[in-house]
Design a protein that fits this description.
Structural class: alpha/beta
Order of helices and strands: HHHEEHHEHEHHEEHH
Number of strands: 6
Strand content: 5-15%
Radius of gyration: 17 Å
Helix content: 40-55%
Number of domains: 1
Distance between the termini: 52 Å
Largest sheet: 6 strands, mixed
């Protein structure tokens, strides 16, 4: 049974998150986050999924195009959150991109348009990419979740676990040489770690033994704390440098 006090706290926290994106920084020090953090067992479950991504859904291995995967994902209730009547937000960009960007989950604008990163966070992401000579059509953009969570809350651990096999197949079909994780949720999920962004930033990590992963702050966080933009600038310069070193295209 849900704890009514905890439920109220989470609703207040979700409201503050939403207001902060619209009106600026909010102090989140007292925000309840226990339901959004992954425990050791859940991180172990993620490792198992990464090792055998098709075990839960054997059909995934026979889907060979992004278009077919999108059609299939659109039929799956398990990818939905507990917010009713949401639209699938699959991914957008160059299907042959050497750089794939992974965020957390769709918001209201993304749900309305069916495309990732089209709200204020998306506008900032576009500016960040342009600063290192990328157009959005050069890269491929997706999220950990493919449906919007209620009140723009972070993806819950069980939602990430359900969604991960489909994201892995999406990554395999794009075959990027580099992956940029935006924020704690995709970082924690792909790298199976509870280490902080501060500990993990500034170096490349490996996902599934073959994808080079860099991480930086989520654009929504930068809207709340512009002081982190300098750190993000260092991160994306490192990304651009590795992109050029690897001879990535375009």
């Amino acid at each position: 049974m849900n704890n009514p006090v905890e439920d109220l706290e989470n609703r207040i926290y979700a409201y503050l998150r939403q207001q902060s994106e619209l009106y600026g920084a909010v102090n989140f020090d007292m925000a309840p986050k226990s339901d959004e953090r992954m425990n050791k067992a859940e991180l172990t479950d993620i490792s198992r999924i990464i090792q055998q991504p098709y075990q839960a859904d054997p059909r995934l291995g026979s889907i060979n195009t992004l278009d077919d995967l999108e059609v299939y994902c659109n039929t799956l209730d398990l990818l939905k959150t507990d917010l009713p009547n949401t639209r699938l937000v699959f991914g957008k960009g160059n299907p042959d991109a050497d750089l794939m960007i992974i965020g957390e989950a769709p918001g209201a604008d993304e749900d309305r348009l069916g495309e990732p990163f089209v709200g204020r966070s998306g506008q900032l992401l576009t500016k960040i990419l342009e600063a290192i000579q990328f157009n959005r059509q050069d890269v491929y953009i997706a999220n950990i979740l493919k449906h919007r969570p209620p009140d723009n809350r972070n993806p819950l651990p069980e939602e990430r676990l359900r969604s991960l096999p489909y994201l892995i197949r999406q990554i395999e079909l794009v075959q990027p040489k580099l992956i940029l994780c935006l924020g704690k949720v995709p970082t924690e999920t792909l790298l199976q770690t509870k280490a902080s962004l501060k500990e993990l930033r500034g170096k490349f990590h490996t996902f599934m033994g073959r994808y080079q992963v860099l991480l930086t702050y989520h654009p929504a966080y930068l809207l709340r704390d512009p002081h982190k933009k300098r750190d993000t600038w260092h991160d994306v310069q490192l990304l651009r440098s590795r992109y050029d070193e690897l001879g990535c295209k375009p």
